[in-house]
């Protein structure tokens, strides 16, 4: 599938193309994709959203609302993400174009699949057709009566790491990893979702805004204002997710950036300039770091094995370049010791939660909704 955006009036280029392998990011940065941009002919090879039957709203991502829907041609249940346009006066948001471009290129069992892009009667109605997952981890953690076992936690984290290794190998940083952006199917397959903040990175590294990643999962270098962003951002978030699954509650639930830094220091100790020269970061002057010489991870997880503590410590290294990579983490002895990770198809199912997300088909058919 090729999505083509053409302009009747442009200054630097008369043509912007988005495909599996091509996007001119310089053009995207220098143009606001105005309302006179249109999909042709008249909407390229994109199907109409009228070919989908919307059932119910199942979530809201960074840049759009997500519905459960049925493809009337194939009868497949899909997730239909309506691209948010409410604050955008100049057409399709750049963030949505980035998400579309990245997802069209990505094919991995642990990454949500973008099947196609469909359109409404006007350009302002743009939808992403994605693989449907029955639940997200955040909702499960809030509603499940029995917490995940350690074997199940290992199964989830291994799948997350495999998806991340694929992303990082393809020079993509997700930049918004958190439990609500991890979906799970009924057969236990974990998928990384919501790529609205994702970016490609390369050499030389380009500066990026530090105000990304939900606060609880934000790496210390981001909190201190770094503009050099690497895959280490995602790995810090993996550490937070692993700890949250093990503890059955968020590890660092700060309510402000100042409190978030303080919680990190309380947990890991005050960073050492000999290990990480943090005093050169732009926002360091906004913080007064408490003197705390101890790493309290062991006190937080007294029952965790040495291998488990070792993995957490590597994921929570202050210096981004010393932080464990996805590839390193997959080789951790933590995943090779008992309890061993369970197989995905042996993960528990959550019919009650699934039924809450999925309105009964009979009711949906009788109350057909237009998107």
From TrEMBL:
Region annotated Disordered sits at 345-371
Q: Is Kinase among the key words of this record?
A: yes
Subcellular localization, per the record? Cytoplasm, Cytoskeleton, Cilium basal body
Cite the PROSITE patterns for this sequence: PROTEIN_KINASE_ATP, PROTEIN_KINASE_DOM, PROTEIN_KINASE_ST
* GO terms, biological process: cell projection organization; negative regulation of neuron apoptotic process; neurogenesis; post-translational protein modification; regulation of mitotic cell cycle
Binding positions for ATP per the UniProt entry = 81
In the UniProt record, does the keyword Transferase occur? yes
Which keywords label this protein?
ATP-binding, Cell projection, Cilium biogenesis/degradation, Cytoplasm, Cytoskeleton, Kinase, Nucleotide-binding, Phosphoprotein, Serine/threonine-protein kinase, Transferase
What this chain does, per the entry, is described as: Cyclin-dependent kinase that phosphorylates the transcription factor ETS2 (in vitro) and positively controls its proteasomal degradation (in cells). Involved in the regulation of actin cytoskeleton organization through the phosphorylation of actin dynamics regulators such as PKN2. Is a negative regulator of ciliogenesis through phosphorylation of PKN2 and promotion of RhoA signaling.
Q: Which family does it belong to?
A: Belongs to the protein kinase superfamily. CMGC Ser/Thr protein kinase family. CDC2/CDKX subfamily.
Name used for this protein in its record: Cyclin-dependent kinase 10
- State the organism's lineage: Eukaryota, Metazoa, Chordata, Craniata, Vertebrata
